[in-house]
Amino acid sequence: MSSEKSYVHVLDSFQHIVPLSNEDRIRFIDEPRWIGYEKANKSLTIMQKLLSKSKQHRMPNLMIIGDSNNGKTTLINRFYEKFGEEGVNDFKESVVPIVLIQAPPVPSEKELYISLLEKLALPYRHTDSTAKLRYQVVHAFKCCNVQVLIIDEIHSLLTGTPRQQRQIMNVIKYLCNELKLPIIVAGTNDAIRILHTDPQHISRFDVIELENWNNNEEFRRLVGSFELLMPLRKPSKLFHPDKTRLIHSISEGKIGNVRRLVSECAIEAIETGAEEITEEALKKRICKNKKAYRVIG
Questions:
Q1: Global pTM?
Q2: In this structure, which CATH number among 3.30.720.120, 3.30.420.40, 3.40.50.300, 3.40.50.720 belongs to the domain 38-210?
Q3: Which of 141, 161, 236, 272 could cross-link with 146 by S-S, CB 3.0 to 4.6 Å?
Q4: According to the model, what pLDDT value does residue 5 have?
Q5: Which residue positions in the chain have pLDDT lower than 70?
Q6: What is the pLDDT of the chain when averaged over all its residues?
Q7: Residue 255, number of CB atoms within 10 A of its CB
Q8: Helix, strand, or coil here: 66?
Q9: How many angstroms separate the Cα of 34 from the Cα of each of 8, 42, 281, 292?
């Protein structure tokens, strides 16, 4: 077997994984890893600035939108992992820097408060009035010195009536005003419609759009970054124009699809002994319905 130093197609810090067993390498591939591309890094910087924003009468908010499986949840989870560690401040008070929840499946003020209380692991009665739960949430956020609230899957609100949508957005505005903290929401492109329920919401929210990737130099760098994470014993040269074109076509330019495609092909390369991702392996995953590109058997 070649020495680890010959695995220049793998990131230096992961080259020790390459000589391991097939099982260990496949397990390594399945583990989630962060790819810090330019738009994601800029978005993290914007969110970090919100985290350190001084309390003021009108706090800025942020909406992150993009197609499904194009990195929104990965981005906010990365932010949470980097800056969400709980602790105690100089006054020996509890500090929960970030509260991250998924929007309730129905646009209900009460269900939103319950999601927040459950995230903070606080007891509540489902039979309590909405007003009581609201008070409990506000009190808990103040006691925990919460600095940022993040609500993922905000497009779930679109399942409700326009009146219900306005009600939830008014709750978000209330929490922002009462607690003087920024609120970050993330959802599909349709989520932007929620802001149009009230002109005030449009003025309060900046918007980051995670667009689908074009097949350009930046996309080739992204694909190359994924290859660096795959502990294969031969270089796959995914940056080659023919392979990049295939990957872009199959993935529809969505980073989540790229990761899944490259990971599946890498695992297959390990299992078959090919030890590289070939054009043939990529072509096997082309089908008429690109949204369901995975072919089993």
A1: 0.89
A2: 3.40.50.300
A3: 141
A4: 55
A5: 1-5, 287-297
A6: 91
A7: 25
A8: strand
A9: 20, 14, 24, 24
